[in-house]
Amino acid sequence: MAEQTAPLRTTAEPAGGSTLAAGAEPDSAVVRDALGVGIAVGLSGFAFGVTSAGSGLSLLQTCALSLLVFTGASQFALVGALAAGGNPYTAAAGAFFLGVRNAFYGLRLSQLLALPRAVRPLAAQWVIDETTAVTLPQPTRRAARIGFTVTGATLYVLWNLTTLVGALGAGALGDTDAWGLDAASPAVFLALLAPMLKSTTERVTAGLAVLLALGFLPVLPAGVPVLLSALAAPVVLFLMGRAKGGDAHAAKDAGATGAEDGR
Amino acid sequence: MNVWIAIALTFAGCYFAKLLGLLVPAGALERPLVQRLAGLLPVALLAALTAQQTFGDGQHLALDARGAGLAAAALALVLRAPFLVVVGAAVVVTAGVRALG
Lengths: 263, 101
Description:
The complex is a heterodimer of chains A (263) and B (101). Chain A has 263 residues and is mainly alpha-helical. Chain A has one domain (26-252). In chain A, 66% of the residues lie in helices and 0% in strands. Chain A is globular and about 55 Å long. By secondary structure, chain B is mainly alpha-helical. Chain B has a domain at 64-101. Chain B is built from four helices and two strands; from the N terminus they run ααββαα. In chain B, helix 3 runs antiparallel to helix 4. The relative contact order of chain B is 0.07. The chains are: A mainly alpha (263), B mainly alpha (101). At the A-B interface, helix 2, helix 4, helix 5, helix 6 and helix 7 of A face helix 1, helix 2, strand 2, helix 3 and helix 4 of B.
């Protein structure tokens, strides 16, 4: 299987998990990295289960979200928007926009993993932040495939189990706010956001998005301010492009905000 | 019923996005502007969601225990704490401030 040992170009930036980016690693090291990320993030499914149940979703709805959507930020965004009284369309739109980044992860993974066409619809469900963060820095196709599969499987199983436990436990906890669990969701967002704030462009975008979201909160229906805040991205790109005077600079650091930290 | 509509739409949209990346030929989405926009979109949305779920209370803005919890999470992030510690810090501090208040 020559293709499995052929060295791959690793143009992808180390996705935050710099300890994962070492040279040729034995299979066991790849598996250990993958399990570490899988377990750490999988457990936060508990917070999702509690948050979702606390937002008024049924056990079945909560578990369906984790089984079907399986991309944490979108799930938290959806239940948050529904809890705030947003209509299902604006709530789903916000969750979808957050999920769009996975398409760009898939693009890079597809080159690394070289999956047979028949496997792609199955593998697609595991194309998320964490699997990308583990897979991209792997030096060989074999290591990339092991990293992707072990991280994906570990996360999928744990995320869904902990979602179930969290949703069941929410009832036993009673008032989830008294336990501070309503702070879990924004903390998850912040933890995903932090490693993306690499340059001025990202920071200005984040700042403008916060202003838009909070500024419109009192005057627009629930869910709409978050969608409007997405406009911060093209606005800042446009302004930065003008300030720098051309595409040459913008192209230079293209993709700098790709994969996020895989913790 | 509304919740199921939202779940179905989110599933369809998110799965389509995941599959699209694996199916389209390499290069189709590689235009610098598209890449930049795709990178910045989650930054804007995550920042907005963080702010809204920390300082939003229905249609009102509020500064309460969640603010302290998020400050703890931010501190944990600056100290490079693992993901679970960051979320745990936010939950524990928020609960603590509520218990004291």
